[in-house]
Structures are given as C-alpha cells and as structure tokens.
Amino acid sequence: SQERSARLRRWYELMMENKEELARIITAESGKPLKEAQGEIVYSASFVEWFAEEARRIYGDVIPASAKDRRVLVLKQPVGVAAIITPWNFPSAMITRKVGAALAAGCTVVVKPAEDTPLSALALGELANQAEIPAGVYNVVPCSRQQTAAVGEVLCTDPLVSKISFTGSTATGKILLKHAAGTVKRVSMELGGHAPFIVFDSANVDRAVAGALASKYRNSGQTCVCTNRFLVQKGIHDEFVEKFAKAIEKELHVGNGFDAKTTQGPLINEKAVEKVEKHIKDAVSQGASIVTGGKRHSLGKNFFEPTLLSNVTTKMLCTQEETFGPLAPVIKFETEAEAVAIANAVNVGLAGYFYSRDPAQIWRVAEQLEVGMVGVNEGIISSVECPFGGVKESGLGREGSKYGIDEYLEIKYVCFGGL
C-alpha cells in the first residue's frame, strides 16, 4: 500500500505540474470555459491526492471470538478488475474520482471515456506512465459513438471484470445494471439528477441569487448536480426573479471557452441544444414567461442564451425531466410542505439545495429532501472529502470521501481455529 500511495502521489504531482495543458485539452474537447477547466483539473487531481493518502488506511478488524480456541479476523482485499465508464461533462474528474479509489484499493482499471472526450483520459494515461504506475494498471479504451453500446456490454458481461463504476444517464445506467446482473458484478452508479433549489421567505435573497447562478449555469447547466427546478416562496418570489434575471444578464458571458471573459461555453452537441429548445417551447405553450434569454445565441452552432422562465408549473416538461442546459424554470409556492412535496415528487434524488435562515426549517427540510446531497445556503457542494452520490434512481454507492474506497474492496472473514 505504501508503494501504491507513492505512485498515486507522483501522479497527482504530475497533474498539478501539467494543469494548464490538461485544462486546455478539456476546453478543446468540451467547450468548457478555460477557468472552469482549470478548476476541474485541480478538483480532479485532488481525488488522486486524497486516495493516495487513503491507500494506507485500509484497515481490517480483529473480532472477539465466541470460542476460546479461535481467532476471528476481517481482511479487506481489492475486488479485482474495475471497468470505469465516464461521461463528457467532467472528462478528467469523473475518471480520477473512480480510478484514484480503485488503484488505492489495489485494483486495476479499464477506463471507457465518453466518445466526445477521449483525450483527457489518454492524457491522464500518459501522466500515469510518467508516474511509473505499472503498465496494464490504468488502461483506456476509447471508442466511437457507434461502438459505445457494444463496448459497454463487453465490460459489463466479461467474467474477468469484477466491478463496474458508471457515471451518466439513468437510462444507460439501467441497461448496464441488466448486463452486470448476469455475472453478479459489484456496481456503482452515479446517474441523472433533477435538483430542486428552494428559496424560502426567510432566505437572504442576494445570497440565494448568487448560489442559484453558480449552481445552474456552471458548465452551461451541463452537470448532474445542476439545479433543474427553482421553487421560490411567494413572499420573495418577485424580488428573487428580478435579481436573478439581472445577475444572469450582467454576470454571464457566452463565448469561446478559450476567451478569458467567457463564463458560458457551447453545449456539447446539437441534440443538447434541441432538448433545451423543446423544454422552453413546451413551457411557453403552457403559459410560462421568458424573463431573459430563450433562444439560440447569435454566436450560432451549439451556443444557447442563458434562460430564465417564470410562471412555471409542475406539468411542464422542464420540471419533469433533467434539461442539462442553461435553462432556469421558477415555480412559485406557498408553504414549506408544498415545496418539499414538489421537490420529492420525482423518481431521482442526487442533489438538492435550499436557502433559509430559520434553524428549525433547515433541520426539517434537510432531513426531508429525498436526495443524496443537500446544499443549505450553498449552491456548489462537491468536494473530495465528502461522499458524492444519490438515492432512488440517481444511483448506487458513494464516491470520494472515506467511503469511496469501500466500493473497490471485498470483506473477507477469516476464522482461525484449533488454537
């Protein structure tokens, strides 16, 4: 474990030494603004650093035995080969969050990066070689969109693979789960979300607006923990909408990811743009109002205006499925119970956010929200020390934190008799 720790540590150092180049690869592949890409590399490297440290803390147990002539031990051993299937929205961090844990545990990995962003995975491989991580430990299998389903199926059905870790859509996750069932593999899934962002009358509205801007429009709304539904209590509704619209117009700049003032890059592809358009058209046809934005950006191609909708209802498509784009729909509510009911009336539960200055309300709502992660008066909550993952159809297992390495370890009980 000491050697694993040292190699991972070296890999982390190389990522930090090369962070500019790695960030430029992300921006070139996904369009993400360079500043966000640089942030992702630091975040990405931090998982390698964290698990380099955790590698030396994989403790077993000695259990008091019921019989005098026995000793009872618990060992933790690597599960074996782990297949890692990752998405395009965080092409580096989604890899290291899984691979750091797997390598720390003593597993080898086969990484299948998203077909849109294979270069980040290969760049990490080059640095793994430089860190003297042995050949065959970190493997990358890039493939075309046409081959993705077939490669995914092989990784999930091959008996040599012991563990699948996947981040991506709920629909794809369910297909992979079915494939993995044939050989009863260990499975971790981090799937789609539909994050509610509740602003109560007691909130600090300015702070709520700042949190809303960060949570919704990071990576142009293309993250699984992005807010997808804003629920705003009637007492402060109009003030919040007005201030949020002003903040969007003043602080967000759509443009080329390599341009220093850009905060909003393009969406990943044409299909993503069409989904945002479909959600807006559906909402407007049912009575929603466009407060700002609402259409493709004049830059063309996959650029879209950051959009804010009001007069939104729970019958609209944008409040029933994840948009994965720069669209913020606002629903007005009256009571806390109503807000919690709307927030929980979905089959997924990854992240949830709310703003309140009432301590009793904070406890009630934090406990009642059916999600794996809650941000109270915070719009950005991901960090390496904290367990990342969801409930319901948002997934299985947790990543990062002291819990993340458990996904790659088997527990073996040893009964030592005849003493």
UniProtKB/TrEMBL annotation:
InterPro entries recorded: Ald_DH/histidinol_DH, Ald_DH_C, Ald_DH_CS_CYS, Ald_DH_N, Aldehyde_DH_dom, Aldehyde_DH_Superfamily, Succ_semiAld_DH
Gene Ontology biological process terms in this record: gamma-aminobutyric acid catabolic process
PROSITE patterns, alphabetized: ALDEHYDE_DEHYDR_CYS
GO molecular function per UniProt: succinate-semialdehyde dehydrogenase (NAD+) activity
Catalytic reaction equation(s): succinate semialdehyde + NAD(+) + H2O = succinate + NADH + 2 H(+)
Keyword terms: Disulfide bond, Mitochondrion, NAD, Oxidoreductase, Phosphoprotein, Transit peptide
A Pfam family recorded for this sequence: Aldedh
Pathway involvement of the protein, from the record: Amino-acid degradation; 4-aminobutanoate degradation
Sequence ranges assigned to domain Aldehyde dehydrogenase in this UniProt record: 2-414
EC number: 1.2.1.24
One Gene Ontology CC term in the entry: mitochondrion
Primary role: Catalyzes one step in the degradation of the inhibitory neurotransmitter gamma-aminobutyric acid (GABA).
Subunit-level organization: Homotetramer.
Family: Belongs to the aldehyde dehydrogenase family.
The name this protein goes by in its record: Succinate-semialdehyde dehydrogenase
Species of origin: Gymnorhina tibicen
Gene: Aldh5a1
